[in-house]
Amino acid sequence: MEGILALMIPLAPxxxxxxxxxxxxxxxxxxxxxxxxxxxxxxxxxxxxxxVQQLEDRVQVLxxxxxxxxxxxxxxxxxxxxxxxxxxxxxxxxxxxxxxxKA
Length: 103
What we know:
The chain crosses the membrane at residues 6-24. This protein has helices at residues 2-69, 72-89. It has 103 residues and is mostly helical.
């Protein structure tokens, strides 16, 4: 027992220095990990903020369409439906592209 104690006493300062170096390196590595995580989080936050801004702009456009034109949109949709019906039934003036008018 005394032999082990006699060996540990001179080695204790070296073991302590190794422990301090290990803890210092470990804390620096953890700090770098935190910085990398923070940089990634900041980049994602910027992307999310950009996407939110795009969506807000789209909502503003939709709100403007709805509030500016009011109920006129429904009549425009019906007019488009009527135009399609006319085209489907073959009504209207036929376009004869092969035969050109002579002036």
